[in-house]
Amino acid sequence: MNFRRDHSSLFYFFRYGELQGLNKQETAERYGKEKVHEWRRSFDIPPPKGESLEMCSKRAVSYFKDFIEPQLKSGKHVMVAAHGNSLRSIIMYLDRLTSQEVTTLELSTGVPLLYIYTEGKYMSRGSPVGPTEAGVYAYTQV
């Protein structure tokens, strides 16, 4: 089986600005727990000199629409691996979530999500329980 690997900086991690390199405890000590929680769980409030989820969403969804959707429309199978906030942004688009709903969306690291594109719509097939089931799930749920 041949795979083509594409790489885009538009799927890079969330840009934390002045918080870059700080751990959660250091950040809370410097800015306060409430402010850190606001930055982490809001859609449109960025950390100082950083990026909000809304800003991340604009670049990630733009890339998805411009480069991934055309491949899906042509019948290709596509796997997307990206940072959590980029993935949350794409899921917001695919599942038509509101900005409020996406702020509560939790993704498990390393657990794949399967979407089927057919007749111009995305159908979520959920998530297999573990990596050993992922292959079976992807091949049997067509």
Automatic annotation (TrEMBL):
- Does the keyword Isomerase belong to this entry? yes
Residue numbers for the site described as Transition state stabilizer?
A: 83
Q: Does the keyword Isomerase apply?
A: yes
One Pfam family, short name: His_Phos_1
EC identifiers of the protein? 5.4.2.11
Per UniProt, which keywords does this protein have? Glycolysis, Isomerase
What residues does substrate bind to? Answer: 24, 40-41, 84-85
Q: Provide the family line.
A: Belongs to the phosphoglycerate mutase family. BPG-dependent PGAM subfamily.
Record's protein name: phosphoglycerate mutase (2,3-diphosphoglycerate-dependent)
Origin species, per record, is: Vigna mungo (Black gram)
